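Entry — protein

Goal — fold tokens:
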Amino acid sequence: MSKTRILIVSDTHGNNKILKKLVKKYEHFEYLIHLGDHIWDVDNIDFKGKVLSIKGNADRGAIGELDRVFTIDGYNIWLTHGHLYGVKFGLNKLFYSALEKKADVVIFGHTHMALNIDYENILFFNPGSLTYPRGTNVGSYGIIEVDKNNINANILEID
């Protein structure tokens, strides 16, 4: 059974050097997702798969969506930066919005802190920040692999 592989980054804030190196490492993945705060960092990236980006609070003037729900192998995946849902103060608003959207997976950024938890059968996933991590000195990103039977989500540190 083939898996759909997703590389997830957030809050790059203009540091294309790290992003380009990371994308080269995972260039064979099917998706690259940028969760906001300098979404234009992915504009000139050489990536063969599909690129999805969501606007964050630092993306004023950028063209794009604030939220997006799409489906992979029957799983509804909701992308949002998170600032509109108060994620720096907790996940309540995000959780109830996820229920309304019938999301199986919520992928968000904004806090610059990695998070990978399952709550009430919903995966809440934040890759942290590549360039300005909080709570650690090392930037991070995420990888999610999806197939019809399973979602495997991991946070990885920049090496």
Summary: The two ends are 30 Å apart (CA to CA). The beta strands are 4-9, 31-34, 50-53, 67-72, 75-80, 105-107, 114-119, 122-127, 140-147, 150-157. The chain has one domain: 4-157.
